[in-house]
Design brief:
Oligomer: heterotrimer
Shape of chain B: globular
Strand content of chain C: 15-25%
Number of helices of chain C: 12
Radius of gyration of chain C: 23 Å
CATH architecture of the largest domain in chain C: 3-Layer(aba) Sandwich
Distance between the termini of chain B: 53 Å
Number of helices of chain B: 11
Largest interface: A-B, 64 and 71 residues
Chains: A mainly alpha (about 300), B mainly alpha (about 290), C alpha/beta (about 400)
Distance between the termini of chain C: 69 Å
Strand content of chain B: under 5%
Largest sheet of chain B: 2 strands, antiparallel
Order of helices and strands of chain C: HEHEHEHEEHEHEHEHEHEHHHEEEEE
Helix content of chain C: 40-55%
Strand order of the largest sheet of chain B: 1-2
Strand order of the largest sheet of chain C: 7-6-8-9-10-14-15
């Protein structure tokens, strides 16, 4: 019953979920809108590919290096830009993603527009789910910790958080680094799965894809992000029977989902609530309301038309 | 050579500025990054292409009808995809906008096919030579048209009652509604005006570069958004300045530096500008209150 | 804390996905020309399935759509003539948006769900490489209609392509430029985000160096660009004999418009990426004199090619481009090998495919070399004249020693 096609979809889901969980820490938990997450993924993918092709290093080391280098690039991007608020940060991260892409298109070591091919195929279902398990564990630990609460305080009201003694810049950079680390891991898995990478595979649309997973599932909620990744990995495949109308329906589907459940499928729920709710006969409405309260004010800058 | 490049940059910048205005207005009022705006620009260009090549219309009426039709589409999109989300978080409308963008571009891809199409010869192209500089009539039309539209918009926003209501909404929607302003109407109007401006840019770019294709909105959208942020999002003069600066940087960057690094150069400049002036060139300082 | 919960959560997530993914088993496969009732698939009597791999939406959709149109024509013809080994051919159509992950998904679906005998596509080199690794692993033949870059057939013995291979064509064309047109100084234009362009430009650089033609200026563009003003200004200043533009037709046409605007009256030459009527539909008069080298020639065609051109015009109401032609030829290439091997089993007919010799197609005569690279001869140099491609020269090529 589980054939290679199903396994394929499961692996892709896993890779997407790891990336989306990383983004969730930045956008969902800390409230910093990032539109350049694919840039981190591509840094990871290229790190792993170049190490394996040039240095013939072992797979596990490649993955780790992919995460570490991507995490470092998160720090490099984070330090100057995290002083920016709201959508100004968003556009700076978008710029970062594009700069990385253009850089990789022009460098010799990345193969330019030809991309890198013949990367050994090492990623399989077990590795992806081991990584996903680790990601979930780390993310859950972070969210439940003192740091996690501080990050959420930054999301709710940065000025108030600073007033309460939260070192917001340092924490935001840390969140960026961790989020980027996992995007890098997912990039490494991706490179070793598809065996071929090209800078154009990590464009703005890829960033948007993972942002959609986070928002659709419900920002800040781990089961939500998992569900978002599952739905958005699976929907385009399930819609194949529509042939030419497939992507039109996918677009309409995104609009419909947001109109129908504006705070994401599991917005504002955490694990405990989900378990409780399933016993109490699923009071979705109440959860959505709670979600709405916590969602206000991301990037809340108020500019007028002047 | 430098001055000619400058003219090219200004023309491109004028178009970016028009698209950026729509971004900026919508952002100013409801705080939404309208990712479908680029596709509205594509749609405006498409209407003009259809009217001039199939209906065989002259460019001037086609231009106006395209603007009208596109603003209608803008209204419908606002009603269907954004209005139900007005009370939810800030990122949900963003995803909804991405859905609209995918919907529009694939719809046109299916209807027209994916290949690039050219416009019929709608403007008799003449070249004006001023010493070293070569200016074409299309360039003159574009720059003049953009300036006229921007002045008109400025007039609407600053001097009319509707404009006053728009500014009130952008300051505080709730208070505005308490003052008897029909906020829903004003938001719808903002979408209509923004869409019409994008359509104008779409027609002009389409004629200038003689190219229309279903995905043309994507990169134009990102660039216009960049321009809006560069100038200070929410600010009308800012959007104009941002558009022109971006157009100039792109043309001069690829003329005097490596053309393959063009986009990287634009974005690096953007990030530097934001670091020095975190709210854009002409943006208002953000007040942080607890 | 709740490590247990986490584990159970991940298992739950895994279950949700596997259940939903598993449901798609009952999803109907799409059929192209012949609509057969969904009967039990019998190994030897049912239709022979061929997977179409390409984008029908997204950035590279124009290549995929035209490849598919060519394939459909070939399949209709073959089926009308009684099919292959007494069985009709059937194209399984999936859209991959040009996205690498989707290419992998679709290819996996082809080889495991649809159990296709061969996959035809992807028109892009990068996409082909992703699909090729999967096809090789699952022992399914892949014939790429469009992948011209390096490192494709090296992936394995199930991987083929039916294009004009640049390493063979480019040196021949450059030699012709030197001998016939006496070019000494050229500009080279490359689209940096297009692997076709980057690969071909590298070959041009080597060949130009070898023939002693100077590259006065190297300019880069990107696919999706519409603004080429600075590039053209720079090329105009460099004072060259001609421009070598290994790019695709959309950017090519827009570049030529800009060149004409700025009064750069020199000739462009490019590969089969420029071979499309879109060139003059967009650029009108600005394309006059532009040259294209390709295996496919709409001018002075032989009988097979003429029939094909008429058919495309009749069925789709458009002029064929190289993607129509390559898709069409790829189906015939596969059908021919199946007939000679007397089997639709990929592990059997792949040997016959590798021994293809002098197969007449619409893109010239095709021979598969011992290294499984295709050799197409001759190479046609076409010139745009009065909004039509006119044959300018036939450049003979031989297999590299």
């Amino acid at each position: 019953m589980i054939d290679a096609y199903t396994i394929q979809i499961l692996v892709v889901f896993g890779i997407n979920a790891i990336m989306a969980l990383g983004l969730n820490l930045i956008t969902g938990v800390t409230g910093q809108l990032s539109l350049g997450h694919a840039g981190f993924m591509s840094v990871g993918a290229y790190t792993a590919a170049i190490m394996t092709l040039r240095l013939h290093t072992p797979y596990v080391l490649n993955l780790l290096a992919a995460g570490v280098v991507a995490g470092l690039s998160g720090v490099v991007l984070g330090f100057p830009t995290l002083r920016l608020y709201g959508d100004y940060l968003a556009i700076a991260t978008l710029g970062f993603g594009e700069i990385v892409r253009v850089l990789f298109l022009n460098l010799e070591i990345t193969g330019g527009g030809l991309g890198l091919s013949a990367i050994p195929s090492k990623t399989n279902l077990a590795v992806v789910y081991a990584c996903l398990g680790i990601t979930l564990y780390v993310m859950s630990k972070i969210q439940k910790s003192r740091v996690g609460r501080a990050l959420m305080a930054i999301r709710e009201d940065e000025v108030a958080a600073i007033a309460m003694g939260v070192n917001s810049t340092s924490l935001k950079v840390q969140a960026f680094a961790v989020g980027a680390f996992f995007a890098g891991i997912s990039g490494g898995l991706y490179a070793h799965y598809l065996t071929y990478i090209n800078p154009n595979d990590f464009g703005f649309m890829k960033s948007i894809d993972s942002l959609s997973m986070v928002v659709l599932g419900g920002m800040g909620s781990l089961p939500g992000v998992l569900l978002g990744a599952a739905v958005l990995t699976y929907a385009p495949e399930k819609l194949r029977f529509l042939q030419n109308y497939r992507m039109i329906c996918y677009g309409a589907f995104l609009v419909f989902m947001m109109v129908f459940r504006p705070n994401g499928l599991l917005g504002g729920t955490d694990l405990r609530q989900l378990v409780k709710a399933s016993f109490k006969g699923l009071n979705w409405g109440a959860m959505a309301k709670q979600g709405a309260r916590t969602r206000e004010g991301i990037g809340g800058s108020k500019d007028g038309i002047a | 050579m430098f001055l000619t490049q400058l003219v090219h940059g200004l023309t491109l910048g004028a178009c970016y500025a028009l698209i950026a205005l729509g971004y900026s207005m919508v952002y100013g009022i409801i705080g939404l990054i309208n990712f479908a705006h680029g596709d509205i620009y594509m749609l405006g260009s498409f209407f003009a292409l259809y009217l001039t090549s199939v209906v065989k219309m002259k460019i001037a009426p086609a231009f106006l009808i395209a603007m009208g039709l596109t603003s209608l589409v803008g209204l419908v999109i606002e009603r269907v995809a954004y209005k139900p989300l007005r009370r939810s978080g800030r990122l949900s409308p963003l995803i909804s906008a991405i859905g609209v963008s995918i919907f529009l571009s694939t719809l046109l891809n299916m209807y027209m096919g994916p290949q690039t199409r050219g416009f019929p010869d709608v403007i008799t192209e003449l070249q004006v030579k001023l010493g070293e500089i070569v200016i074409t009539t299309t360039q003159l039309y574009i720059v003049a048209m953009s300036i006229a539209l921007m002045l008109l918009l400025r007039h609407i926003v600053m001097r009319t009652r509707v404009g006053q209501a728009m500014r009130a909404c952008s300051w505080d929607r709730e208070v505005a509604s308490l003052m008897g302003i029909n906020v829903d109407q004003i938001i719808a109007l903002t979408f209509a005006i923004g869409s019409a401006l994008a359509a104008a840019a779409g027609v002009m770019m389409g004629v200038y570069f003689n190219a229309w294709w279903p995905l043309m909105g994507f990169s134009a959208g990102i660039k216009a958004f960049t321009a809006a942020v560069l100038g200070g999002i929410g600010s009308i003069p800012g959007a104009m300045l941002g558009g022109v600066v971006l157009g100039l940087v792109e043309i001069l960057g690829s003329a005097y530096l490596q053309s393959s690094y063009r986009d990287a150069i634009s974005f690096t400049i953007l990030i530097i500008v934001l670091l020095v002036r975190p709210s854009g060139l002409l943006g208002r300082k953000i007040e942080q209150k607890v | 804390m709740n490590v247990k919960k986490l584990i159970s959560l991940s298992i739950a997530a895994l279950l949700i996905v596997s259940v939903t993914a598993g449901c798609s088993g009952g999803q109907p496969t799409q059929k192209s020309a012949e609509q057969k009732p969904p009967e039990q698939k019998l190994a030897d009597t049912g239709p022979i399935k061929i997977g179409f791999l390409g984008a029908l939406t997204g950035n590279v959709a124009s290549y995929g759509i035209n490849t598919l149109k060519g394939m459909k024509l070939a399949v209709e013809e073959i089926n009308a003539a009684g099919g292959v080994l007494g069985r009709p051919l059937e194209i399984v159509i999936e859209d991959n948006r040009g996205d690498k992950t989707e290419i992998a998904n679709v290819t996996k679906k082809f080889v495991t769900r649809d159990k296709v005998a061969a996959v035809i596509g992807d028109p892009t080199t990068g996409g082909t490489k992703v699909a090729a690794a999967i096809c090789q692993e699952n022992k399914t033949v892949l014939v790429s209609a469009g992948a011209v870059g390096p490192g494709v057939v090296e992936i394995g013995d199930y991987i083929f392509r039916d294009v004009v291979i640049d390493p063979i064509a480019v040196p021949a064309v450059v030699k012709w430029l030197k001998d016939s047109l006496k070019w000494k100084r050229v500009a080279l234009i490359v689209s940096v985000n297009n692997d076709y362009s980057v690969g071909q430009a590298k070959l041009f650089e080597d060949a130009l160096k070898k023939e002693g033609i100077e590259i006065a200026i190297k300019e880069s563009i990107q696919d999706g660009d519409t603004v080429f003003t600075s590039q053209v200004t720079k090329i105009k200043k460099a004072n060259v004999d001609g421009m070598i533009a290994p790019i695709y037709y959309t950017e090519g046409a827009l570049l030529m418009i800009e060149a004409k605007k700025q009064g750069l009256n020199k000739v462009f030459i490019g590969g089969d990426g420029l071979l499309s009527p879109v060139l003059w539909e967009l650029a009108k008069g600005a394309t006059e004199g532009c040259m294209v080298f390709a295996g496919f020639s709409p001018d002075e065609p032989d009988e097979i090619t003429k029939k094909f051109i008429d058919k495309v015009k009749q069925v789709y109401n458009e002029e064929p481009d190289m993607f129509h032609a390559q898709g069409y030829d790829a189906v015939y290439l596969v059908a021919d090998a199946m007939k000679r091997a007397n089997s639709a089993d990929p592990s059997v007919f792949k040997t016959a495919l590798a021994q293809t010799k002098d197969l007449r197609g619409v893109c010239g005569v095709l021979t598969i070399l011992p290294n499984r690279e295709p050799l197409r001869t001759p190479i046609n140099v076409l010139e745009v004249k009065g909004q039509k491609f006119a044959l300018k020269a036939r450049v003979p090529v031989t297999a590299p020693q």
